[in-house]
Amino acid sequence: MTMDRPRVSVVMPAFNRADYVAEALRSLQTEPGIDAEILVVDDGSTDGCDAVVAAIAAADPRVRLIRQDHRGVSAARNAGLAAATGEFLTFLDSDDVSAPGRILRQVTKLAARPDIAAVVGQRIYFNDMTPDFQPREGSLWERKLDICLASAVFRRSTFERFGGFDEALTYGEDIDFYFRLFEADSRFIIEIDTAIYYRRHAGNMTNDRDAMHRACLKAYHNSMLRRRATGRTRRLDVFFFRQFDRETEFGGCQETPASVAATFNS
């Protein structure tokens, strides 16, 4: 690996996203400056999503299709992690769009800082996009810094240390993973730059609010059990849903210093 062409594995879980997966892949195929490995794990789609990906993979050796029976998003992510060969890892859901240039930008920052676990950017909600990956006028919903895995780049060694995703969780596997990093006092770089565009549509998994809330509570509970078992009593300080006005280093073994806390509003 050289920093002019870093090796990056992108894991894309896909289930019945034939209408959107080609655009998601195109946003990765046009990403400059990286040696990309794009691993699409089709989780038992029935709408021809796997055929769309197979056609794209036949024309682009960077794209690899992995098929499995329907086992859920966590199992699909884990299958992608098991197949990944890159030094750096990121994610993209098959109905979303990666912001142009964000992967190289984040990898460059992460490679320069061995003490940082991940570089996390902002997520923009949208419902319509131009061919050059710009949300159409009037299509933007909101801007958030949240738990989205696709907003971040990680080192492969982070997953070797902390493991993959809890396949017992139908939702909240991202919260559970981030909590494991927070529990170990990991540090993050929080960007104010856009990392991904999150497509809002009727098929979003997050539309099932009750199921999402139950799974998130389970992830919180799991974290409490782990902390109780290790004797950790200090609360976790998390960046979820906060607003930062400049790029900020966040986390670590100390309570958030005032200089950092001043950069966001809870």
Keywords:
266 residues; globular; 10-stranded mixed beta sheet; disordered C terminus; alpha/beta; two-stranded antiparallel ribbon; single chain
Description:
This protein has helices at 21-29, 49-59, 73-83, 102-111, 156-162, 173-183, 209-230, 258-261, and strands spanning 7-14, 35-43, 63-68, 88-91, 97-98, 118-126, 140-144, 152-155, 187-199, 243-244, 248-251, 264-265. The protein has 266 residues and is of the alpha/beta class. The strands form 2 sheets. Strands 1, 2, 3, 4, 5, 6, 7, 8, 9 and 11 form a 10-stranded mixed beta sheet that branches. Strands 10-12 form a two-stranded antiparallel ribbon. α2 links the parallel β2 and β3. α6 packs parallel to α7. It is globular and about 50 Å long. It starts with 6 loop residues before the first strand and ends with a strand.
> What composes the largest sheet?
10 strands, mixed
Gap between N and C termini: 39 Å
Strand content: 25-35%
Query: How large is the radius of gyration?
Result: 18 Å
Number of helices: 8
Helix proportion range = 25-40%
Total DSSP E strands:
12
Give the overall form: globular
Structural class: alpha/beta
Q: What is the residue-averaged pLDDT?
A: 86
Unreliable stretches: 254-266
Provide the succession of SSEs: EHEHEHEEHEEEHHEHEEHE
Task: Give the secondary structure arrangement, pairings included.
Elements: E1 7-14, H1 21-29, E2 35-43, H2 49-59, E3 63-68, H3 73-83, E4 88-91, E5 97-98, H4 102-111, E6 118-126, E7 140-144, E8 152-155, H5 156-162, H6 173-183, E9 187-199, H7 209-230, E10 243-244, E11 248-251, H8 258-261, E12 264-265
Parallel strand pairs: 1-2, 1-4, 2-3, 6-9
Antiparallel strand pairs: 4-8, 5-9, 6-7, 6-8, 9-11, 10-12
